[in-house]
Amino acid sequence: MTPQMQSNPVVRDFQKKRESVMKHQKSSTLSNIHGSISFTPVGGAEALPTVGAPLAPVDQGPVERLSGRRLRPRKTQRDQAATAAAELRTSTTFAQHFGAKVPPPATIANNLAFAAAWAAEVAAAEAWLKHARHQASLAWDYTLGQLEKIRTPLAAASELDPSFVAEFPAFSNIVTARSESAKRGSITRKATKRAVTKAVAAVKADVVHVDDEAPTATPAVTSTIVGHA
Q1: Which helix (H) or strand (E) holds 32?
Q2: What is the pLDDT of residues 2-17, one digit of tens each?
Q3: Interacting residues of 79 by C-beta distance below 8 A, sequence separation 6+
C-alpha cells in the first residue's frame, strides 16, 4: 500500500479494523463462532472473522453515466484525492483563483473524498479477497485430503448397504466427486477419440474415392523429325 493511500482516513480505518480482527483470530485458534455455528479452524487456516464481508446489494442494472463515457482515475488521482479534498475544505482563497467558473470547493472536496472512499473500499475488498482465498485453500486442502482417505471405504459401504447413500446423499456426493469427475472426463475423452477416428476414416475414404474416379492421363506422343542431309 502506498504512503498516499495510508494517509487516506478510510484506508486507515479499515486497517485498524482488520488488525483488530486479526488479533482476535490469533487468540481464538481452538474454536470460532461465526453466526450461530461454532467452528474449529483446520489446515493452518485462521479463524473466521466475527464479521465477514458485507453482502452486496441486488444489482439494479447499469447506471447511466453523467459524463457519457467512462473516465478511469490515474494512480496519482486515487492516491492524492483525500489530501486534495482536505486542501479544498480548508482553503480560503480558492474562490479568488476561479470565482464562479467552477463548482464551490466544498462540492469538489466532497466528490473527491467520496470517490476516494469507494476506491479504498475496492482496495480493501481486493486485499480481503486474496486473504480469504488463501484461507479457503488451506482449509479445503486439509479437508479434502482427509476425505480422500475414506473414499474407498465409503464406496465399499455404499455397495454393501445402499441405504447409506440414501441417508447421506450430499456427503456421499462430496466424497465421490473427484472420482465421478474423473469418470466423466474419461468418457468424454473416449467419445472424442471415437469421433476423431471416425472423421479421419471418412476423410481417407473420400480421398480414395476421388483417386478412383480420376481420369487416366493420355500418354504424350513424341514426334521424331528426321532431317535429310
Answers
A1: strand 32-34
A2: 555 556 565 566 556 5
A3: 2, 4, 5
CA distance 31 to 48: 10
- At 44, the amino acid letter reads G
Instruction: Give the position of cell 480422500.
Output: 148
pLDDT digits 0-9 by tens, 126-148: 999 999 999 999 999 999 999 88
**Looking at the whole model, is its pTM more than 0.85?**
no
CA angle 222, 223, 224 (to 5 degrees): 120
CB 101 within 8 A of CB 126: no
User: Looking at the chain, how many residues does it have?
Assistant: 229
Q: Are 175 and 151 in contact (CB under 8 A)?
A: yes
Q: Where are the alpha helices (DSSP H) in the chain?
A: 3-6, 9-26, 75-90, 94-98, 105-149, 151-160, 163-167, 169-213
The one-letter code for the residue type at 42 is V
